[in-house]
């Protein structure tokens, strides 16, 4: 009896230990956080418009003739004659207006727009965007934008100095566009749901299909999901199911995600990102730098008084060489913490770690994909 009790106690301890270890490597996420609905993507809109009310920071009509043409055309449409004379006021600027039409947007709702200068305007601060139509890739008008422009940057200048912070030739109009046309496709007209993984991975796609099929078997009596490839998972709509409610239930299912091991290096900024699954085989690394400093201190040599000598320049060069580092360390990275600790023990800066990681990859000891940006 005591032996059985000890066996059960040992089994309980092992079960608790495995339960504590599993969450350390098993990462779970909701389906809505790792995948997006193919039918729920954004659509890009673009338009050409004018910004008025600038304080002398707009386009010059000589260098930007399209601004004057657009202004004359706008005034003629308003019934104002523009015959004779040319305006030299720089209070108008031609801009490109861009926006993203969100999925399932309905007429009457508002979206933000971004304006960017086309001419030689120096600042759009304080301007107002005049009514501008925004078209899609099919040429149809889906929204109309108008409103005050908000610019985060500023510019101050005088006769001898200029101070500029941020970008003053681009800005935003929050809620400045009103949607006028509904997208031709409707969500409930679809016969299936297509989920697209934000980080394509075959293991994650298969797990999503299995989780959805487990839910569908308990709810509708059969599987409905199939993983097409590493990015797409297709879910067929059951006859008795409502598509909106089905998507709401599916997107909240919990899935164990998986990602390939990667090391991302940006040599310009010195940024290093090491994934949690990166492994390094045992390898010995030595890193050292040689610094050579050359200093030129020429000396002026003057001739003796009342002599016929000439002033000359005598060159003098001092060369100093210094070598740092040179320590040999053994790096064996069974996990991320050990790998980072081994790299830190060498005592090098990020640029040195970048060189070391590239050398380890060339030696075949880095069990991960090395991405250079």
From TrEMBL:
InterPro entries: Flag_FlgI (IPR001782). It is found in: Bacterial flagellum basal body. The keyword Signal applies. GO terms for molecular function: structural molecule activity. Keywords: Bacterial flagellum, Cell projection, Cilium, Flagellum, Periplasm, Signal. GO terms for cellular component: bacterial-type flagellum basal body, distal rod, P ring; outer membrane-bounded periplasmic space. Residues 1-26 form the signal peptide. The basal body constitutes a major portion of the flagellar organelle and consists of four rings (L,P,S, and M) mounted on a central rod. Assembles around the rod to form the L-ring and probably protects the motor/basal body from shearing forces during rotation. Belongs to the FlgI family. This is Flagellar P-ring protein. It comes from Rhizobium sophoriradicis. The gene is flgI.
């Amino acid at each position: 009896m005591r032996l059985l009790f000890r066996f059960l106690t040992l089994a309980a301890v092992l079960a608790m230990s495995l339960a504590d270890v599993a969450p350390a490597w098993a990462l779970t996420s909701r389906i809505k956080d790792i995948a997006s609905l193919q039918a729920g993507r954004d659509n890009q809109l673009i338009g050409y418009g004018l910004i008025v009310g600038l304080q002398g920071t707009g386009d010059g009509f000589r260098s930007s003739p399209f601004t004057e043409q657009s202004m004359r055309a706008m005034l003629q449409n308003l019934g104002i004659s523009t015959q004779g004379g040319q305006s030299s006021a720089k209070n108008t600027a031609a801009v490109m207006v861009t926006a993203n039409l969100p999925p399932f947007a309905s007429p009457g709702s508002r979206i933000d727009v971004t304006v960017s200068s086309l001419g030689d305007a120096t600042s759009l601060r304080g301007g107002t965007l005049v009514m501008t139509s925004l078209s899609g890739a099919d040429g149809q008008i889906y929204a109309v934008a108008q409103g005050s422009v908000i610019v985060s940057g500023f510019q101050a200048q005088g006769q001898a100095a200029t101070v500029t912070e941020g970008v003053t030739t681009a800005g935003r109009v929050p809620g400045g566009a009103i949607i006028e046309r509904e997208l031709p496709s409707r969500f409930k007209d679809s016969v299936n749901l297509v989920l697209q993984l934000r980080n394509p991975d075959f293991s994650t796609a298969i797990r999503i299909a299995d989780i959805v099929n487990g839910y569908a078997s308990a709810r509708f009596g059969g599987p409905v999901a199939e993983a097409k490839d590493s990015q797409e998972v297709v879910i067929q709509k059951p006859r008795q199911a409502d598509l909106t409610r089905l998507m709401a239930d599916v997107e909240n299912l919990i899935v164990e995600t998986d990602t390939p091991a990667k090391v991302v290096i940006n040599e310009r900024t010195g940024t290093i990102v090491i994934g949690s699954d990166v492994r390094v085989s045992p390898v010995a690394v030595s890193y050292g730098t040689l610094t050579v400093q050359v200093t030129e201190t020429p000396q002026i040599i003057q001739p003796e008084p009342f002599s016929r000598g000439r002033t000359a320049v005598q060159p003098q060069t001092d060369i100093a060489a210094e070598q740092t580092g040179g320590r040999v360390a053994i790096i064996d990275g069974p996990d991320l913490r050990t790998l980072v600790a081994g790299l830190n023990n060498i005592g090098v800066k990020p640029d040195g770690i970048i060189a070391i990681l590239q050398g380890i990859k060339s030696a075949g000891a880095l069990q991960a994909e090395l991405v250079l940006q």
